[in-house]
Design a protein that fits this description.
Length: 167
């Protein structure tokens, strides 16, 4: 019977560890998250680990030794409590797998780019350089902001690539 264990990976080496552990015959689960980040002036989706520096490894103690895991490229070692490898409940792994998108196998990011009421700055467009307040997202590519123009508060809909948080 296989049991699940949590492995601690070296920084930003989760995919390397996943590939090397799989090559050694271990069953590996690395939950991934699709997240939005600003890069080169645009918002892009990036796939990253749901739990940075951690992945899950299944091994049967009778058939597979856990010793090779700690010397695997990309792995720092197993998570341990009192010197014993910590086990992860099968129900947790199943719950994580159920929350994945069936088409992509990724967990979706449910948080908005900005919290309503956050102060933002327009980086492009005819009003570039002016500041406003984030109101809502209207779709994949547009956001609604509130900006004071000509003495009154106006509601503007602009490209999400045009806005950034005020620092």
């Amino acid at each position: 019977m296989n049991r699940w264990y949590a492995a601690l990976c070296k920084p930003r080496q989760e995919m390397v560890a996943e590939a090397n552990l799989a090559n050694q015959g271990f069953t590996v689960y690395l939950p991934r998250l699709k997240n939005r980040h600003r890069r080169a002036g645009r918002w892009v989706d990036r796939v990253e680990p749901l739990f940075p520096r951690y992945l899950f490894v299944a091994a049967g103690l009778e058939s597979q030794s856990l010793a090779p895991i700690r010397s695997t490229r990309g792995v720092s070692g197993l998570v341990r409590f009192g010197g014993q490898p910590a086990t992860v409940a099968d129900s947790l792994i199943e719950a994580l797998r159920k929350r994945e998108d069936p088409a992509t196998g990724l967990h979706g990011c449910t948080r908005p780019l900005f919290a309503p009421g956050a102060h933002i700055k327009l980086l492009q467009g005819p009003l570039a350089g002016l500041e406003g307040v984030f109101a809502a997202e209207t779709g994949d590519q547009r956001v609604v902001i509130l900006m004071e123009l000509l003495g009154r508060l106006n509601r503007l809909e602009v490209s999400r690539d045009w806005v950034a948080a005020v620092k």
